[in-house]
UniProtKB/TrEMBL annotation:
This is Dihydrolipoyl dehydrogenase. Disulfide bonds join C47-C52. The gene is lpdA. GO terms for molecular function: dihydrolipoyl dehydrogenase (NADH) activity; flavin adenine dinucleotide binding. Its cofactor is FAD. Belongs to the class-I pyridine nucleotide-disulfide oxidoreductase family. It comes from Actinacidiphila cocklensis. Keywords: Disulfide bond, FAD, Flavoprotein, NAD, Nucleotide-binding, Oxidoreductase, Redox-active center. PROSITE patterns: PYRIDINE_REDOX_1 (PS00076).
């Protein structure tokens, strides 16, 4: 680095060290570019420190708790749950996060990426001020500043009674009751987690169904599964008031909800968890100095989606700053980072096929999908054929005993597969095959020749395609 007030120059300046930012930095460095990564907090971002990784660690613990109940009630294994040692559980979670964080830091160091720990501000199309210095980019600037929980007017999180998805995992102790506001993937996961840990759970969603972006059948089956677990679901409902009451451990939040029938319901819960979506973080970024502006929802839209480049040449965007069709998912951010790095290195990578990005909700039951929903396909005027098979129609599904299904949306007349939608146990681990099927525009007949192992849940995927290809074995056409 240069001394004094002289600009420090690099090939690429990356602003933000979350999944999109650090993947850009690592790939650009691997391609021989000199990279400076500016991150005001910890590399790894929300996904690693407050979202994906710690929440999935906790959901695994929740699955173990559920397994004890299943062992006792279904399999005759006389097991009981004495208690959940919350400090021990969170210590394991934090160790997983810490080891991942050290791994990311080690990868960046090994790649020769210079990490600047400071807030960044754009000072021009190719320049960034950070930590009292100014950095300039020879090839381009990449914006990857991520997102934060979206809040509702008048609802102020306190980290204890009223929490967001960013701090819910780190709030003190396990509440005995919780109202989750928001029935998207994050809200559903947190509702599932708290129910597994013994809490009374109310899940409120303003849309007419849970996971409103998913296939309608997925939403219906998920709702049935959550209700069977004792979660109270209120869809088409909205929050009209939230008031803390009491003090100490005896206190809570009095939440008022207007239902889809026009009824007012009051719920007294120990904790209100707000999960109504996320919004891009651009505070203090100085977009105007670089000639940029946000859209109505705070995103920085690219002018060229094939290069994820803005209207200002040399400034690219990845991750949660992007508007739809980018889904705001960590694995999409990785792909976006790879693409931008390769563009900045002079390559011409294939544009991201956003409909082929898989979507997963890690609740119990899980959901996983890729491609178009049935309604989306019909809205496009496509000739559509649909086949659905319950997971309990295969032996391994009976073993798990948790229901679920496989639904395939394909083009009529044996044409390409348009979408695959799964609900049930462990379907997050089954979606990769379907991502390849949709991404490569395979036809049911192509898939039907591939043999799925027996007995597995994946057999249901194979059976659905066999039937669509006219070779049905355990399912009638």
């Amino acid at each position: 680095m240069t001394s004094g007030n002289e600009p420090d120059t690099a090939d690429v300046l990356v602003v933000g060290g979350g999944t999109g930012g650090y993947s850009t930095a690592l790939r650009a460095a691997a391609l021989g570019l000199d990279v400076v990564l500016v991150e005001r907090d910890l590399v790894g971002g929300t996904c690693l420190h407050r979202g994906c990784i710690p929440s999935k660690a906790m959901l695994h613990a929740a699955e173990l708790v559920d397994g004890i109940a299943e062992a006792r009630e279904r399999w005759g294994v006389k097991a009981t749950l004495d208690a959940v040692d919350w400090p021990a559980l969170t210590a394991t979670r934090d160790d997983i996060v810490a080891r991942n964080h050290r791994g990311v830091e080690a990868h960046l160091a090994h790649a020769g990426v210079r990490v600047v720990r400071a807030a960044a501000r754009l000072t021009g199309p190719r320049s960034v001020a950070a930590g009292g210095r100014e950095y300039t980019a020879r090839r381009g600037v990449v914006l990857a500043t991520g997102s934060r929980p979206r809040l509702l007017p008048g609802l102020v999180p306190d980290g204890r009674r009223v929490v967001t998805s960013d701090d819910a995992l780190f709030a003190p102790g396990l509440p005995d009751s919780v109202l989750v506001l928001g029935g998207g993937a994050i809200g559903v996961e947190y509702a599932s987690l708290h129910r597994s840990m013994g809490a009374r759970v109310v899940l409120v969603e303003a849309a007419e169904r849970l996971l409103p972006l998913e296939d309608a059948e997925v939403s219906r089956q998920l709702g049935r599964g959550l209700r069977r677990r004792g979660i109270e679901l209120l869809t088409g409902a909205r929050l009209t008031g939230a008031e803390p009451y009491g003090s100490g451990d005896g206190g809570g939040v009095r939440v008022t909800v207007l239902t889809d029938r026009g009824e007012t319901r009051v719920h007294e819960v120990a904790r209100l968890l707000v999960a109504v979506g996320r919004e891009p973080v651009t505070d203090g970024l100085g977009l105007a100095a670089a000639g940029l502006a946000t859209d109505a929802r705070g995103h920085v839209a690219p002018a060229d989606w094939a290069r994820l480049e803005t209207a200002v040449p040399g400034i690219h965007v990845v991750g949660d700053l992007l508007p739809p069709p980018s889904p705001g998912l960590a694995h999409a951010s990785f792909a976006e980072g790879l693409l931008v790095a390769e563009v900045l290195a002079g390559g011409a990578p294939r544009p991201i096929d956003y409909p082929a990005v898989p979507r997963v909700t890690y609740s119990s039951p899980q959901t996983a999908s890729v491609g178009l929903t049935e309604q989306q396909a019909r809205d496009r005027g496509l000739d559509v054929v649909v086949n659905t098979m319950p997971l309990t129609a295969v032996a391994k599904g009976m073993v798990h005993g948790q229901g679920g299904s496989v639904k395939v949306v394909a083009t009529g007349g044996g044409g390409p597969v348009l979408g695959v939608h799964l609900v049930g146990p462990h379907v997050s681990e089954m979606i990769a095959e379907s991502q390849l099927i949709v991404g490569w525009e395979a036809e049911p007949a192509d898939v039907a020749w591939h043999i799925h192992p027996h007995p597995t849940l994946s057999e249901a995927v194979g059976e659905v395609f066999l039937t669509l290809a006219g070779r049905g074995l355990h399912q009638s056409a």
